[in-house]
Amino acid sequence: MTMCEGQKCRLDVSTWDSSPARQSGPCANVFGVVVGERRHMDDPGRVLYYFHTLRVERPVSSVATERSGGLVHPRRERREELSVGTHALNSAGGFKYTFDGWYDEIFLYKIDEKALVPVQREWRTAMEQDTSPCEVLYLCYATRPWFQSPFASLQYMQMPERQLCYSVSVCHRCMSPFVSQRHLHEHLVGGYCRFRRPPGILLYDDKDCGRRVYYVDGAKHLHYGRCLSLLGKAFIESKQLGSDVDIYEFFVVTAPRASLPYVLGEMEETTFRREAASFDAAHWDGDVVVGYFSRIKHRPDHCLSCILTLPMFQQKGVAVFMLDVAYALTEMRQRLCGCEAACGRRGGAISRPFSPHGQALLLSYWRRRVTEALMQSAASPSIDTEATATSAAEDDDNVASTVPFSVVHEKVLLGGHYIHEDDLRFFLFHDERCFYARKTPAIAVPATCPKRRTAANESTDNNNNNINNNVSSSSGSNHYYNSGIDIAGGSLGFVPPPAEFIGSVLLFKRDVLQREHQPGSFNQQFWCRGSDGCHPYSIALFHY
């Protein structure tokens, strides 16, 4: 049954894997109206409908109280990462996840077949001006872009007529986008694409699962870097394309074609596996790009600018693997060189702002790595693990040791995790397992970080700095780390003044144990080596 103009309907987002509507909670209910219809450029028999959002609703679920025993959870003091707006989902960074666009009929469910909504002029204008693709095609996978990306900025792209919808087809060899399957076919069989694998230098080669990492210089491979950036813009809300890719270096993660995830369809899984293992074998080595991360060159104490796992390859540990690689490369730069001009010595910082997906990933990753480092430190002979576990459970004031924040950061670095000091502070004040006990109840909780500090506050901070600037730890199955860290003047949304709060972080050993022996996880033994035994990512690449 076809849709008609003005038809009220509900948009089904439950089948969108890792879509913004499914971020941190139940699926949002999206209601809207059909404004018009168009034929697809590659398949004239395929009709798509333009959906205009009228309202977005999210089911209200019961949430455990966040205030208990004088503890204040930081989530109560700042905006949610992703909140429901009138016509979109709004992120804390000010970006909007909109649902307006072109959809197949299978995603639209009629609400009232008789009552039609008058189509307003601005809705129709928005439909006519919408030049975004309805989907992104990569190999045998189709996914809907979450944000608009200027694919037309590539001069060879011939945009279709406005009365037609189109899909962006990405070349599996060189990642170039095309507006039709016909153009992609001509690109492949006409001898125009000469890539057999990602350009650049092979840095990492997992012989067990086939996962690889390629280093791509944005200045030497401009087109490849631009294609990666345009693809990333379609799925990352905060990604900016203000500068060209020559100032970036890209680290591309690939998987063998034989390991492609199976998609239910006309082909059985055994047949799919057989076809995938030999797909385009004559002209392609079979390295499927599953994600990438980028880094700005010549920026000390910096390890990552942008990270993307393609939606069809998510939930497979690729993002955690890329973070491990990013920090390992940071360790190389700072151990082999450590210059203040390009490499630094204080760990690797990650560029702001964080998207909701990115922040959830980073907090989870940092939690695991900090737990690993502090568990190693707690195993030292100076800490009585038996007494610590008991005293922490019975009396929080009876702790095994007290160390300042700077020492905690040092322990994390010594544990082999090159997390920057600013990122560690961000973790301590934003993780869902971090709580803050108010030292002076009469003082109101600040909603945001103050722009400047008064003389009275500075005097109070100086008087209390030696008391509150500490981290208390225990080494039982649950670890409690109390923190009153002075980070005033930082860029965080919620910064408790050190004279007013002491924080506690709950860390669990199971966060570390669950990750052991996972196939495809990062392993130092798979770094590539030259004939001289040296790693190809060397000082020569740090300072070019």
TrEMBL record:
PANTHER family: HISTONE ACETYLTRANSFERASE, HISTONE ACETYLTRANSFERASE KAT7. GO terms for cellular component: chromatin; nucleus. Transmembrane segments: none annotated. InterPro entries: Acyl_CoA_acyltransferase, HAT_MYST-type, MYST_HAT. It comes from the Eukaryota. One of its GO terms (biological process) is regulation of transcription by RNA polymerase II. Its EC number is 2.3.1.48. Keywords: Metal-binding, Nucleus, Transferase, Zinc, Zinc-finger. It is found in: Nucleus. GO terms for molecular function: chromatin binding; histone acetyltransferase activity; transcription coregulator activity; zinc ion binding. The active site is at E340. It catalyses: L-lysyl-[protein] + acetyl-CoA = N(6)-acetyl-L-lysyl-[protein] + CoA + H(+). This is Histone acetyltransferase. Residues 128-441 form the MYST-type HAT domain.
